[in-house]
Amino acid sequence: MRIHIQNPEAESIFPLTPEQWAAALARNPDMAGLQPSFAHDDAGFAAAIGEAELLITWTKVVHARFSQGGLKALAPKLRTIFCTSAGLDRLAPFAWLPDDVALLNNRGTHAAKAGEFGLMALLMLANHIPFFAQAQQRGEWAPRFGSVLAGRKLVVVGLGSLGGAVAERAAQFGMVVTGVRNTARPHPACRQVVAQDALDTVLPEAEFLVLACPLTPETTGLLDRRRLGLLPKGAKLVNIARGAVWDQDAVCDALESGHLDGAVTDVMVPEPMPPGHRLWSTPGMFVTPHMSADDPNTYNDNSLDILFQNLRLARQGQEMPNRVIPKRGY
Amino acid sequence: MRIHIQNPEAESIFPLTPEQWAAALARNPDMAGLQPSFAHDDAGFAAAIGEAELLITWTKVVHARFSQGGLKALAPKLRTIFCTSAGLDRLAPFAWLPDDVALLNNRGTHAAKAGEFGLMALLMLANHIPFFAQAQQRGEWAPRFGSVLAGRKLVVVGLGSLGGAVAERAAQFGMVVTGVRNTARPHPACRQVVAQDALDTVLPEAEFLVLACPLTPETTGLLDRRRLGLLPKGAKLVNIARGAVWDQDAVCDALESGHLDGAVTDVMVPEPMPPGHRLWSTPGMFVTPHMSADDPNTYNDNSLDILFQNLRLARQGQEMPNRVIPKRGY
Questions:
Q1: A68, A89, B242, B303: which has the fewest C-beta neighbours closer than 10 Å?
Q2: CATH code of domain A111-287
């Protein structure tokens, strides 16, 4: 099978190298028949795409090359696109995607890193770290005591790779975890799982709330001003989903009024966030620049192992678990 | 047995209440014979101390009342002092302490909280949080990626209640932990343990270093400029011991030069730290105001359970595990 790997041209974070490819084949010897080509520029893409059966690339490249249509003319043999990002909301709606081309996301690559980031954010909030960060800038000694996580109530919205990993870490620390996802199907790390339409019923108990769902039409603006009001006073929020999943201004208002105790967010609108944006300076808000789920030391290795597992299952006639379902949106 | 509980007069953090006492007796019914009195002022202390056989109080009170000598005249029946702090370095040397009075520290109360704080600090450093805190203040979007903890090398100096708890949490996340303590006695969370005189041999491998030892003459200035130079470039430091265990200025210099990547400290000289102190503004330094090990929700309950376990062992003719050994210094 002809595989083309199109690395990003401008951004040089995490380019997939021939050495990483060779190491992945050594770990997955049943994939030895794959014939890869590598490029990072237009000429390399043009030379390879006509023959490529599988394309490995980044959301940005897929968006630039295909989102206006014309995939079949450009890439007649293409049957699979492996997009090495977790959230492909930027590519939705998927009208540009022919039915006989499978779009794979990179769900799973980010789990270990995101689980650690999510746990860190919970511990930071339990220990008032956003408050201390701001006190430090003022040179102000302002003790407040924190509490251990054990026994405290956490609601995790989204139990996919990211949210599931956070729920598992939180449960290891004795938190009482309620999960929220499309259906109320149980999850091993959760004391209970409710369907998304029951979200309002669990918010009043959420001492901690983690947003880890994909951005879809259903989740856009999910944590709005009304739902923020359902949270108990002193609630603490973590957002590793997308900035548009919560109402940013309503969150800032709730921090300023003291209804919320603190927040850690890795995602925001817009990204990159410009100087002077309200999120930078809201009391109790800690901002990280969209790095929660990406570990350069393991990213490409994990990604290739996940791709190869999908190809292995496809050879066996099974569904590829990372295939995006366009009408679901992820 | 007559027990006097002297709560702090000025500071009202964590006063031990009759309700907490009653709850602790319910958990420890074999302690029902103890007769408590409670006070927070001079008059209450004066009224009770002459008859008290056991005094429960804070470092500050012990220091103010006894450190100049005269304990026997003031408290002729006193046989045990339970000091509800972990580090009693402020009371050293212990010349004021008669041989027939046992001074108990509160080792163990702080373990769960300190373990979580230590893990949080390691995750914060792995995720460049001190750097992002400072970037946020400047309103600057400055992405850097972090890595999971698994496989990374950690040295923990001090394997008592605090350091042991951090080592256990770190090992749960797959870190390769080396412990340092008075003897090379093994510890279940550590891949290896070396004696303190071999500290220099393990520093060159320490990607992360946690200080969690008591402050004694031997540990004062332990992490000096020379030893900081033995750490690998990019090392990350956590201090939950005492500010005097490291050379603060040398640490700040090493952060400014880039030799160290970041540091989280809960302890410093002096405390409280005044505005304008260098630690507030050193790049890569994150300061918390001495709150790492104290959880108001569990503190007094844990403390009383630990005291009662010591009394139980004493009744059985055994050593009290929390008894301070004056010549050791903790």
A1: A68
A2: 3.40.50.720
* Cα A293 from Cα A274, distance rounded (Å): 22
Neighbour-count burial for B27-40, b at 16+ CB within 10 Å, e otherwise = ebeebeebebbbbb
Taking an 8 Å cut-off on Cβ atoms, the answer to whether B291 and A143 are in contact is: yes
CB contact under 8 A, A132 and B289: yes
Whether residue B117 and residue A123 make contact (CB cut-off 8 A), yes or no, is yes
Please give the CATH architecture assigned to the domain spanning A2-109+297-315: 3-Layer(aba) Sandwich (3.40)
Q: According to CATH, what is the number of the domain B2-109+299-315?
A: 3.40.50.720
Per-residue pLDDT tens over the stretch B115-162? 999 999 999 999 999 999 999 999 999 999 999 999 999 999 999 999
Q: What is the dihedral of CA B133, B138, B142, B144, to 10 degrees?
A: -20
pLDDT per residue as tens digits for the range B77-111: 999 999 998 778 889 999 999 999 999 999 999 99
Looking at chain B, which residue has its C-alpha nearest residue A275?
A: B139
Measured between beta carbons, which residues in chain B are less than 8 angstroms from residue A116? 123, 126-127, 148-149, 173
Give the containing element (helix H, strand E) for A48.
Answer: helix A42-49
- How many whole angstroms separate alpha carbon B225 and alpha carbon B219? 14
CA of A30 to nearest chain B CA: how many angstroms apart? 28
ipTM: 0.89
Q: Do B280 and A136 touch (CB under 8 A)?
A: yes
